[in-house]
Amino acid sequence: MPQTKKKKQPKNAFLLFMIHFKSQQEAKGIMFPGGMKDVAAKAEPIWKKMDLSEKWIYEEESRKEKERDKLNLENKYTTFGKSYAQVEREKNEAIEEQIRMTQEIEVTVRSLDCCTSLQTNKFYLIHVNYYCRHEKGMYTPCELALAEFNFVDGIRSVYHTLINPGTIPLGYKYEANKHSEETHQIPVPPEEFGGETDYVKILISVKQFLLGPSQDESLMPPLYTQPNCIDAAKDVLSKLEDSIRAGCSSEFDVFRVYPLPKLFYELRNACVSNRPGKVGFPAFSLAERELDKDVFNYTRGISCEFHEETDALPFCSLSCVRRWGFLIMDHCCKDLGIQLVAGKHCPKEADTSRYLKLAYQASSTAGDASPHSSNSLMKTSFVDYGSLLPDPSSAQHFTLGATPGIVSVSKQPEPKKLTCREPLAPLRPPKTDSVALSLMTEFTEEDFPVLGSSKQSKPAGVMRNEPIAVAGRGKLAAGPSKPVSLGRGRGLVADLEKDFDNMQFS
User: Fold this and answer.
1) Model-level pTM?
2) Given 2, 8, 426, 435, which residue has the most CB atoms within 10 angstroms?
3) Pick the CATH number of 124-260 from 3.60.9.10, 3.40.50.880, 3.30.420.10, 3.40.630.10
């Protein structure tokens, strides 16, 4: 822990008198070779003989100085030896940096044309895994991944490497092991796992990936990541840059790391800008929520070789940047009229052939399919929508509902024909109750009686007015009264094949 700075104490009344006394004596030609020590020796007897009215001037000045000291944050320090004024300045700088990043993202996206440049503009994603975070805000890295994508080509290329930092800082080995076990599961050095130890090599590869053959650092594109990964990404990239500059600071920050949710929000709204009346994300929080859902988090085939053999797929850096790209294109490509390509715009397992909106759509039921409509279709979780295209002359047609795999049937005298076909987002694993119910067998109301109801179904062979035996309660007289059950009114009928005479009644 750094040493705390000694706080500068405000001047008391006697010290103020000494300063005044020294200036008066020096004006008369009297010097004090011993400094303030000699001044104190001569001023103390005079101070003791002074009246309270004479001392009041210096005491009042001392009080005012103490008041000013309370308001001066430069003289107040944290436990780490940093003044509160410096803490406040850093806080304001962080706010200004956040505003600057937000404005730059808005200008970048909104300057692109929805029909041309927006579809081909390149965006870069970054994710960094680390072993531990130091108290000074430094990180010990272990994995780095980059991805480049645009809406037309999908994910064009990726860069990934495991990083071997050599040794874990003293006192952080336990934290590094714990963080590794709970997240990425990359072995902690000195265990060997094949990580790259040459930071210069990693930096050169990163710059080649981002800049191509130009290598003009002034053209370095911004990198986007989740807000909780921004500090780690900045610190690791700074470490890589220091490996070449040897501690020499550059005129500007080579790498810029910006928040991904803001980019996602702007892209989603930009993609629907040419469609009057349609809104992408009405609120910024919706973009954050979609990224937090992370619907592709356990998808295999998009992680590195190391993580493919583990159960830590959601924490793989390579998987993270690919999933983020898939999610953004999943929401945006349909509004740009771009057909999804498996492996580029979405995982390879996604069946994109089934995701075309039907040419005919009922205006009253569009996007509002009920899970209880069409029991025959409810028994199948995946439906080939291409085979369900209706005959335009027929009054009966199908509507793709809001839940994947659910199709409702409606009757319309005059079906409304859409002017274009649009690709839909790829099917995600069924996570809603309606889809889960579609995989179940058909049940009736008798299989789910009302709790505590007196209308209990009787086993075969039991007459209507015959007394019912209830577990733990004995025989009850026939009648309209509700049977008292073992489960506090749940109507659990006992097995009538048991010998009632041998049952113990309460």
Assistant:
1) 0.60
2) 426
3) 3.30.420.10
